[in-house]
Amino acid sequence: MNNVQKKYFIGLTHFLGNVLGPKYEVVFHSIDKNKASMEAIANSHVSGRTLSSPLSSFASSMLQEKVYLDKDFIFNYKAVADSDKMIRGSTFFIKNGDKLEGILCINHDTSELVETMSKLISLENLGSFVNVLGIDPALNNSEESEITSKEKLEHSIEEILSEYIDLMSLDTDKNLTLRQKEYSIKVLFDKGIFNIKGAIPIVAKFLKMSVPSVYRHLKLIKNKE
């Protein structure tokens, strides 16, 4: 993606943020050599993230699985921020043929809406009525919404790594065996962690390896794919 295209999507991000309002966080990531960088974020108070925050582990996993080859977008999946807000996420894949050049994400904070509807249902004793109709006021059960996993909107790469490996156990004088290191790198690779810009040196730090060693292990993994 060239600078002109980036400028266009950065402008679109802030436009959508203003039009949709403060309950909608809009985020644009560019993808360069399979590495994602956040270029713009509007209404960042929804998740508390900044431009230095990494691509979420959920989005990294989608990139690793190449979901974008079969879909132009996904929407209405669950997401969660630090405050445990109820968020509905949607992602649009910016593609050039089969090449992914960026993603545009919209995260809707539905916390107040769900709380208000829940109070109304309780106040008017509508619970049985809602159940009969099969309506879940917190969800839009669209056939297009096939993603059932919950996205966590992380603030740092370390936070993402902690979801898959025990960082506390690594922060000791005890060294992992070569096999343990190889296994850790394979797990992180399968989860798409190395699609996040800046992940390799941080992984190397925690695994007590050199950056070139991590690259060598990644090359071996990719050659086996």
From TrEMBL:
Which interval of the chain is the signal sequence?
none
Organism of origin: Aggregatibacter aphrophilus ATCC 33389
**Name the record gives this protein:** Uncharacterized protein conserved in bacteria
Q: Which Pfam families match?
A: HTH_22, PAS_6
Write down the InterPro entries for this protein, in alphabetical order: DauR-like, DauR-like_HTH, YheO
* YheO-like domain boundaries: 9-115
List residues of the Transcriptional regulator DauR-like HTH domain.
170-219
Highest taxon of source: Bacteria
